[in-house]
Backbone:
């Protein structure tokens, strides 16, 4: 998988995805499998579903590229996507805002008052099971990793921080496939 860094405040839809692909020099991308640059070409498209607050379940047509050096294919996704999740990065961060951490005791827990407020404030496109799964994955896996690498829990820095230290998107599960970040502006 190749992740294109994009402003997380951009709305994710087919139009913004095509704009992102059009302004990316696909041929210059590095293959996540063989790490060779300059051998990647457009190959195919596939659909994936994302849960959005305004439009409900939205189907996005995602580009798949092929590395002509090693023959592997890779999806090209914007950094507003978390691999193998239908929930956007922004929504992940909003769910995680229901977590309190105590710096003195290094403890972390779900603030149930914040969670109740969250559930009543427009996130009806996410099921309670999805929200619990996100909270559990953050508390049991990602929180300690953010703390140890001093990665702030802010949408502006978390993507590049997690790729730099853990070679994967924030909240991506550890068993998911290789993922590299392409950030032409940095
Ligand atoms: Zn390759």
Residues:
């Amino acid at each position: 998988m190749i992740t294109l860094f994009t402003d997380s405040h951009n709305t994710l839809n087919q139009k913004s995805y095509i704009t992102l692909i059009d302004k990316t020099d696909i041929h210059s991308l590095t293959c996540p499998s063989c790490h060779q640059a300059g051998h990647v070409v457009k190959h195919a498209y596939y659909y994936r579903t994302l849960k959005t607050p305004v439009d409900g379940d939205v189907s996005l047509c995602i580009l798949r590229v092929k590395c002509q050096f090693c023959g592997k294919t890779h999806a090209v996704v914007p950094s507003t996507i978390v691999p193998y999740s239908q929930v956007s990065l922004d929504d992940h961060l909003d769910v995680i805002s229901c977590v309190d951490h105590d710096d003195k005791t290094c403890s972390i827990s779900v603030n149930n008052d914040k969670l109740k407020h969250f559930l009543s404030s427009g996130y009806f496109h996410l099921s309670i099971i999805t929200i619990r799964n996100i909270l559990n994955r953050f508390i049991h896996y990602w929180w300690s990793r953010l703390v140890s690498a001093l990665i702030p829990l802010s949408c502006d820095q978390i993507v590049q921080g997690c790729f730099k230290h853990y070679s994967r998107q924030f909240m991506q599960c550890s068993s998911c496939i290789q993922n590299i970040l392409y950030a032409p502006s940095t």
In short: Helices lie at 14-22, 89-96, 112-119, 128-148, 158-166.
